[in-house]
Amino acid sequence: MTSSVDSAAGSGEERRPGHRPGATELGFATFPTLGRGVDTTAVDARGDGRPVPVLLIPLGATEQHGPHLPLATDTIIATAWANAAAARVEGVLVAPPVPYGSSGEHQDFAGTLSIGREALAQLITELVRSAAHFCDRIVLVSGHGGNAPVLGPTVTRLTGEGHRVSWVTPRWPVGTEIDAHAGRTETSLLLHVRPDLVGPFTDVTGTITPLSELMPTLLADGIGAVTPNGVLGDATGATAEHGAELFEHLVEHLVDHLLSEPRPEAGRAQFDDGHGRSLRWSAGDCLRTRVVDVQGDL
Predict the structure, then answer these.
(1) Nearest CA to 143 among 108, 204, 194, 92?
(2) Which of 103, 193, 277, 286 gives 63 a disulfide partner, CB atoms 3.0 to 4.6 angstroms apart?
(3) Angle between helix 148-160 and 116-131 (nearest 10)
(4) Among the ranges given (119-133, 164-178, 217-231, 280-294), the one the predictor scored with the smallest mean pLDDT
(5) How far is Cα 149 from Cα 121, in angstroms, rounded to an integer?
(6) Which residue has the higher pLDDT, 128 or 31?
(7) Dihedral, CA atoms, 90, 91, 96, 100, nearest 10 degrees?
(8) CB neighbours (10 Å) of residue 182?
(9) What is the pTM (predicted TM-score) of this model?
(10) CA 151/CA 162 separation, integer angstroms
(11) 22: buried, middle or exposed (CB in 10 Å: 19+, 13-18, 0-12)?
């Protein structure tokens, strides 16, 4: 698989990997097209053959990604990833992305906007509670490794409230060479999904010291203390072809995750939406979550 920004036939519209404008994006929908909301008094009887809605919420960050990649890199990757998976599975919608995350370790670099762990946890909590009014399942698609410490406990808490919610973060086949931040991995992914946003990178090399050795200093003093240009890795070998391979792994994994759990069955259950309201919902929305291993910090 190779990548470029192609023109849609006959329309002049730009198409990018993982992007199908309007087809699966919640922000471009109207409420009547979304089927039904939660009915608190009667069993759902749609019976119209339409798939039960699943909502993907891309989670990104606004933080430095070296001198060659945009601050929105994690958000761009998460959004393209979610859109590509949604295009392959019927009944899946993609929410507008969350462009802020927990990025305090990047704060020494201009442009970084971090909301911290507590605010991120609250934001995710309220989004899931709100989405549960019209979606049967929510999957949080995180393109930023710094969100992972928040996602685990937050999803556990939401699951305890009765929500059918899970999360994914990039994982790779065994043996795949992955660097930590703004190196070959992310540069290749951006060359695949948004090559127009990648700056010169043939001489961009950051620290290549193993992340495990850097972590004590990084956690104490931030990324700027271990790499002056903000890169953890070496971007010089990045290619769009490598990015296409990595992106396909991401998409296949997310599609597998979406297909791994059965659709809701008949029957009803109750959960608290976090605002004192008890809502009735299908018994298939069981208290389940599947936490995906974190492999690689994007």
Answers:
(1) 194
(2) 103
(3) 40
(4) 280-294
(5) 10
(6) 128
(7) -80
(8) 29
(9) 0.79
(10) 16
(11) exposed
